[in-house]
Structure formats: C-alpha cells, structure tokens
Amino acid sequence: MIQFLHTSARGVLLSAALLAASVTASYAQLGVGRPVGRQILDGIVAKVDNQIVLRSDVEALYAQEEARAEGKPLPPNLRCQILQSLALNKLMLAKAETDSVVVEDSRVKSELDRRMAYFIQQIGSEKKLEEYYNKPVKQLKEELRVQVKEQLVQQEMQEKIAGKVSVTPREVRQFFNRIPKDSLPYYSTEVEVGQIIRFAKTNTKAKQAAQAKLNELRARIQGGEDFATLAKQFSQDPGSAAEGGYLGFFKRRELVPEYEAAALRLEPGQLSPIVESPFGFHLIQLIERKGDSFSTRHILLKPETGAADANEAAQELTKLRRRILSDSISFAKAAKDNSEDKLTSGNGGLIANRQDGSSYLPLDKLDPAIFFAIDTMKVGSITPPMPYRTDDGKDAMRILWLKSNTPPHQANLNDDYQKLAAAALNEKKNKALDEWFAANRNTVYLEVDPQYADCQVLNSIN
C-alpha cells in the first residue's frame, strides 16, 4: 500500500515521526510513559558541524518504536533510519545557524508552558507529574528546553525552504493517477464533526473572591513575605507557578494587552494592582527592563465557575441550535460568529484531524466523548449543549454537529480530495527539501561513529 508520507532519506525529516511534537530524546514519551529503564552507555555517534547526535537519542527513539510495535518485528535497519533522521535534523540546525534563523526565547517558553500544561492535565496534577518522573516541573522543563528550541528552529527552516509550496487541482489529480490501483489506501469509517463552544461565564461572587485573595497576597508580600514562595503555593498558572511565578523576558505586544499595560506602568520591584485578563486575575511584579524587553513574575487566580455559570452558556447554545435547525443560520456561520474556540471557529467549527490537517476523523480514533455523542446521530443532527473542559482546564458547554459520515471505502478523488491534496502537497514539499539537502549536504562536516558506518546517512549527507 502506498504511504501518503514521503519516506526517502531526507523525507523522514518532514514526517517528524522520530521527533514528535510530544517530547523526544531524554524524555521520549513525557506524559505517555516513563523513561526507558535500561541503562545506556552514552556517547556521541554523529557530528554534523557543531551539532551532535548522542547514542541515548538513538536508543530512546528505538525504544519508543519498540513500544509502539507491541511485539511485532521491527525493520532490521531501524537504528540506521533513526540516526539518519536525527542527522538530517542536525544538518538543518547547522544551516539555521549559518543562515541566522533564530527563535525568540519567549516562543520557546510559550511552547514549553503549553506542553507542560497539557501533560499536567493528562496526568491529573503538577504533583502527580513530579511524582511520576521524580523531578520538579522546573527541572523537567529545563531538560526539555533545548529539544523544544531545536524543533521550533527546524520548523522555521522547513517553512523557509518549503513554506510557499502549493499544489493545483491538476497536480492533485496527477498524484492520484500515479498511485497503482491495487495500492490505493482503504479508509475506515470517517466523520466530519463541527463544534460550537461557549465558556462558562464567571459570576461576580467568584471574581470578587479571586480579587480578595490576590489583595490579601499583595498585602502579605508588602509585609515582607516572598513573592516567589506565595506564587508556588497559590498561582494557578501551570507554566510559571513552579518557578515562583517568573515569566522571563518578553517584548512589547507578546503578552496580552491588559497584562503588558499594567507591567509597563511599574518600576522594578513594584507590585501592580489586581489586573484582569482573559486568563483570570493577576498580581504582577516587574523585575527588570532591558531595552525593548521586560521581565515579570505573577500570581494568577482563575475564578471558579459553577452550575449556574454553565447554565447560561447552555442557554445561549440552545437558542443558537434552534436557529441552525430552523435554517435561519448555517452551522459554519454560527460557529464563526459565536464559538469561543479559536482553533475551530474560523473553520466553520469543524474539528481538524491532527494527523493530516483535514476535517475527516477516523471513527475508531475519535475522542470517546465525541464518539458516544455522535454514535447514533444522523448526518445533519446537532446535539443538545453538553459540558466540556478545554485542554487548558476551562469549563465550557458545546454543541456538536455531524456534518458527514463516510463509510469504509477505497481512496477516490471525490470523497478524499482533501487527503489526496495534503499528500500531494507533502510530496511536493519533500521534493523541495530533497533539493535543499542535495544542495547543502556537502557544505557541512560529518563524522559518524564506526558502529554506524554501514548506515545510509553517509550517502545521504556526504
């Protein structure tokens, strides 16, 4: 069966299967499984200019593939494939240095915070995460920082090389016609699901309670207690609480306007009044100004929502549902104008497939909450409002719309144009990357450990 991911030596890079967006290398499956228990004698197995690949990098990813295989035999040259992929990524990093491609520290921090918040939510709490890995969150983040930064730099380089590549309908058809008929993929049942989300509005009493608590903490800090200690104890920002509320340096317009405006009115060491933002209520302390950047720490409190607050969101969605079902407004228009989920509102409310970016979701891989909601629905139906909790822990209500339900079938242009277009685009982008690698592979110094002398990485870069 033909794969819709390019699998040439250089194309392995784009698939990112070995450098997944969860976390690789030293914590290959943070949030998924514990680090591999067996001991590995570490050492450098490849150098690409001043970039290095460690034996532990290769072995951690090999162990990850072993776990995924669930006892099935692995390709005999898998370690070579892994080394090849890692070396190609290091080539990209090496060229990023010479091309002055950089990623702002604020972006790295934001991505680290996002991932850590996700892991904390998945495992249940920050304390459980720390117990699971026997390390504080701050240390986990520091150990992942280099990997996250490298991944972001690689993304920037890929965008620079192939970001403007596009495909025409004619190219999609040509791509489809090149696939041997007996190799066309067979798709299981797929659905398109739309959602409209409304957050549970925080009531006045809860807001007043959060403000009162922050004013109490403000008084305690002014009375001599340590800001960082109180932030660790009370702040509800999973990204910064473990670091005493420290956010690091940001430039203007990189933080939400309410926070930035309050912070920039302060002198170093000064405390702000209570500041409200879309994230909740903040107590801010300015630490330092440096040119156009500034560093702060904060304590964030998120007012709790109750049943009455969710009820208001449910009533809004009930009215909206009636309008859609009576054909006075389309679901896509209603989602665009009313949904508070930024990821889906601009796409007519449709939930994207994280694997290929299309709107088609394999039924057997659906989120259980969505699966059981739509399992018996007819196409075009809309659920009543249902409770929902976002990835960042916000209480909300949502309605789900079953746009389509495609039975199992062999790939064809009519039903699977989106997938085929994405695959054709991926192939074309990989071709652009292939050409870039061919032009740049001889511009770097490469050294490979004799243990891997037979791997194709030597032919791929030299």
TrEMBL record:
Q: List the InterPro entries.
A: OMP_Chaperone_SurA (IPR050280), PPIase_dom_sf (IPR046357), PPIase_PpiC (IPR000297), PPIase_PpiC_CS (IPR023058), SurA_N (IPR015391), Trigger_fact/SurA_dom_sf (IPR027304)
Q: For the PpiC domain, which residue ranges apply? A: 188-288, 291-401
Q: Name one Pfam family in it.
A: Rotamase
List the SUPFAM superfamilies hit by this protein, alphabetically: FKBP-like, Triger factor/SurA peptide-binding domain-like
- Which source organism? Hymenobacter taeanensis
Signal peptide stretch: 1-28
Annotated GO MF terms: peptidyl-prolyl cis-trans isomerase activity
What is this protein's name? Peptidylprolyl isomerase
Gene3D superfamilies from the xrefs? Answer: 3.10.50.40, Porin chaperone SurA, peptide-binding domain
Keyword Signal among record annotations = yes
Q: Does the keyword Zinc apply?
A: no
Q: Which UniProt keywords apply?
A: Chaperone, Isomerase, Periplasm, Rotamase, Signal
